[in-house]
Design brief:
The chain is about 75% helix and about 0% strand. It contains eight helices and no strands. The longest helix has about 35 residues. The chain is mainly α. It is globular and about 55 Å long.
Length: about 190
Amino acid sequence: MESSTGIEEPADQELAERASIGDRDAFSMLVERHYAFIHRVAWKWCRDRSAAEDIAQNVCLRLGFAIRSWRNESAFKTWLYRITINAAHDHARFIAREMRKEQALAVHASAIGEESVAYQPSHGDYIWDAVRTLPDKQRDAMLLVYGEELNHADAAAVMGCAESTVSYHLHTARKQLKTLLGKSGEEQ
């Protein structure tokens, strides 16, 4: 890989190898090279700037620990997709727990006569909002194939499943989205 200065830069695989044995410069280069990618994937997954930043920072932290176990068994970017999507899942679970706590507090406050501010979700692209309601595997397949424009084989490598499984998840997701979007269209 050649940089804008004409100096050849090491490939991701080589940097990951070096970082896995403790080369901090190699690790820094990997993070710098892929931060925008990590943030973009996180943003496509959650469609919230603040959450995407949190997820991206979390991925960078995880990467610091995970790189030690790098075995060069797949492309670095495929491995990075997995880490990023897992971090997005964890973030979604955290947000769901926090929302349940807020709702419980609101019910409690209401029961004792205090005012509370109801949670109002932000309005975004209604299609991706619907995608985010799908089960994890269907949502991931949609994100990777339609959001990241990966082919089914590459999405399968990221998800750790067969290409036909990705196709199945996409088929099922499209059917569910048709139902979800049909219902939301009726309400408007």
